Amino acid sequence: MVDTSELESFLNDKSAKEGDIVEIVGDGVIEVKTDKDNEKRKYRVLNLPVKLNGRELIYSPNRDAMPVLQKAFGMNTADWVGKKFQVKLYPKTAFGVTKNAILPVIIEEKKA
Question: Looking at residue 61, which CATH number applies to its domain?
Answer without folding.
Answer: 2.40.50
